[in-house]
Design brief:
The protein is an all-alpha fold. Helices cover 68% and strands 0% of the residues. It is globular and about 65 Å long. It binds fe (ii) ion (2 copies).
Length: 343
Amino acid sequence: MHPGRIETLRHLDQFVADNLSTLLRDPEVNWQPTDYTPDLSTESGFEALRSLREEARMLSEDVLTVLVGDMITEEALPTYASWISVLEGVQTKSHPETPWGQWNRAWCGEENRHGDLLNRWLYLSGRVNMREVEVTTQSLIHDGGDTQTENDPYRGFVYTSFQEIATRVSHLNVGRLARQAGAEGLYKICSKIAGDEQRHARAYKLFFQKFLELDTNEALLAFQDMMKKKITMPAMYMRERGKEKGESFARFEEIATRTGIYTSRDYIEILENLIGDWNIAHLQGLSPAAESAQQFLCGLPGRYMKILDRMAARTKKSDEEAGPNYRFSWILEQGNPFPLPAL
Ligand SMILES: [Fe+2]
Ligand SMILES: [Fe+2]
């Protein structure tokens, strides 16, 4: 048990209930994967499929691999939803149905579209060994992850604030590289998903902002603890068939760095964003421990910047050792070789 958490969450029940409908979208008006993928019940759907496959041919193997990794990360949603549901105060015996629980389900419903959309696009692309991808997805859900948050909602929402921004960065950069390659449709898909991640990040940051207002010292200590342990990635245990837990994730991370889709610099920039938005430097009336957490946090981006080159060199070295010779089982060797016959 962590002190004060349940009281804080109960105090914010009404706030969350009041804001649910502005922070998240009504399913009946929200975008759906079908809006961005060919409708194969129509003849024009086959034309759309043809152009999807043309786009897919233009993507580099690196970008395609990161896209697959991002999709698998999204598809492991059951892990994230069940983790949030057991954070202290989200639901309790006396409060089995709280606005936090409603938030979790509604958020989960929105997130579920991300994996669905990317999965469908990749399936139709003809460049991916979907069965191997599915083995990885099932393995990842089977293995879970380690957010290092215990069941503390303060630590938990630092984690989600960070991760929603991180996934936004990744989707945006995949989209940018797709557009450069001429894959305009995929660019639109990635931008759409990134837009959701942005909205979710705003919501989680708002929740943590409220924790800071109501329980400043404890919230600051939780933030410090998360940053000392470093934010892990949700797909940290990703593995292909026959591989060790996390082995494929390490290769995936190297490609994300090599292509500039998600790098150590992004990690530092996200940290700076959180420190700035939560106004950490200007919090007052702190306990001695919280004051030292404040100093630690405010100095952390600068300290990371100093060792950025060293961090980049380390990733580059492991990439050179394993990367160039490494082939993901997800990617077909002569993928998408068959142009679709004319109608
Ligand atoms: Fe997502
Ligand atoms: Fe997300």
